[in-house]
Amino acid sequence: MTVSQLLFQIPNVSQTDPKTLIFALFFSIFWLLPWKGVALWKTAKNSHKKWFIAIFLLNTFSVLEILYIFVFAKRKKINRSGQTDPSS
Questions:
Q1: Contacts with 71 (C-beta within 8 Å, 6 or more apart), sequence order
Q2: Residue of 59, 62, 67, 86 with fewest CB within 10 Å of its CB?
Q3: How many CB atoms sit inside 10 A of residue 39's CB?
Q4: Which of 18, 14, 13, 58 is nearest to 39 (CA)?
Q5: Tens of pLDDT, residues 46-55
Q6: How far apart are CA 3 and CA 73, in angstroms?
């Protein structure tokens, strides 16, 4: 099978079922965008420029965003005197 034959077998968007397109739209609105928004907000708040660029440019279906939020974005603990705790 040649490359051109393989390319002609790939369906284009106009041949895709409308229900599939609606599902993809809702999936991106209600799953991907909130995770990406929270992760980008946390990276900006924590001044993690490299993380911000990676999360902004890569589409990992929210895996990278969830990892950043729950694993890498550690909050600094503030003691009662208002100073950051050096142990965290």
A1: none
A2: 86
A3: 24
A4: 58
A5: 999 999 999 9
A6: 45
Amino acid at 38: V
Rounded to two decimals, the pTM is 0.65
- C-alpha–C-alpha distance, residues 63 and 60, integer Å: 6
Tokens of 67: 């990892």
CB-CB neighbours of 65 under 10 Å: 24
Residue 80 is inside which H or E element, if any?
Answer: none
Q: Is residue 81 helix, strand or coil?
A: coil
Report yes or no: 88 and 80 within 8 Å, Cβ to Cβ: no
